[in-house]
Design goal:
0% of the residues lie in helices and 56% in strands. It is an all-beta fold.
Length: 87
């Protein structure tokens, strides 16, 4: 019974909202949700706290983050790569 185990770690792409903390960035993940009554699409933003060991991400950068074990009270994500730099 050899099963190939797939990675259950989630990955998200978002924009860095803040990098004012040491080795921590706040990433905004934007999604569109349909209003249950009116049918209009509404933009909702989730804030993720991610660990940035080398402090390479800056505000406005598009980044990819992956789920990890809890590092602190709010940090459960780590920076995988900076996809696009802010202009």
């Amino acid at each position: 019974m050899s099963e190939s185990r797939q990675s259950t770690r989630k990955e998200r792409t978002g924009i860095v909202i803040s990098n004012k903390m040491q080795k921590t960035i706040v990433v905004g993940i934007q999604r569109q949700v349909r209003h249950p009554i009116y049918g209009k699409f509404i933009k909702k933003t989730s804030r993720l706290y991610a660990h940035d060991e080398l402090e390479q991400a800056h505000e406005g950068d598009t980044v990819r983050v992956a789920e990890i074990r809890p590092v602190s009270k709010k940090k459960r994500w780590r920076l995988v790569e900076v996809t696009e730099r802010a202009k």
